[in-house]
């Protein structure tokens, strides 16, 4: 018998998920014993732990190109089987909502489809980061995190003088990043294509105080302790799947003029 404590699932969904687990009769895979029969499981807020935000993004079958799974930050998901049909119904995929659960030191993801079917996956971690979703409680298959790359660059004018601007963009492949940089190659400086999302890139700066007055997109100008801190803000705005740009001038931002 599995005991499930739900803390953040809507009432109807909570009843459905509890019932689905209770009726499955499956032993809980704790990673320590294949015949574990009792586990206290709690439902975690997606952004309430370090694991939830790291699960957001694209996953694909561990051995093939399909199926793929997209876990969104708003708690929705989309599964694509890769099957394409000219008639309906077509088993091309499903959508629904996903939840994060914890049982002891282990994490699980449940997918509740729009048709109210439930699939369960155990989250495998390496150095505290999720790398695989492996079927559990009767669900088969496994997903691996799709590789993501962060492209970042600065540009120069015709004389090679750098513009005071910085760009960061998430892409799905190294080749996609190269294609972004290729047209501006003659005027690039400090360009890089690194594995991982832009939000995963370097977030640590020295304490050297060399202030710049920076602006990300059209946000209000802000004084950053140094240029590195502005670049961290730009990478953070690009996040895990977006694009961001920032600009700066040397020195702290001028204090706003008091109104008459």
Distance between the termini: 72 Å
**Unreliable stretches:** 1-38
Main sheet overview: 8 strands, antiparallel, barrel
Specify Rg, calculated over alpha carbons. Answer: 23 Å
What order do the SSEs take from the amino end to the carboxyl end, as H and E?
A: EHEHEEEEEEEEEEHEEEHE
Structural class by secondary-structure content: alpha+beta
Mean pLDDT over all positions: 84
The number of E-state strands comes to: 16
Helix coverage percent of residues? 10-25%
* Spatial shape: elongated
Count of helices?
4
Give the neighbour order of strands across the main sheet: 3-4-5-6-7-8-9-10
Strand content: 35-45%
Tag the structure with descriptive keywords.
six-stranded antiparallel beta sheet, 260 residues, 15% helix, alpha+beta
Structural summary, described in words:
An eight-stranded antiparallel β-barrel has the order 3-4-5-6-7-8-9-10. 15% of the residues lie in helices and 38% in strands. A hairpin with a 6-residue loop joins strand 3 and strand 4. The chain has 260 residues and is of the alpha+beta class.
Please write out the topology.
Elements (H helix, E strand, L loop, with lengths): L2 E3 L5 H14 L15 E5 L6 H5 L1 E5 L6 E4 L4 E5 L12 E11 L2 E8 L4 E9 L2 E8 L5 E4 L3 E7 L9 E7 L2 H8 L6 E8 L16 E5 L5 E3 L2 H12 L4 E8 L10
Parallel strand pairs: 1-2
Antiparallel strand pairs: 2-6, 3-4, 3-10, 4-5, 5-6, 6-7, 7-8, 8-9, 9-10, 11-12, 11-13, 12-16, 14-15, 14-16
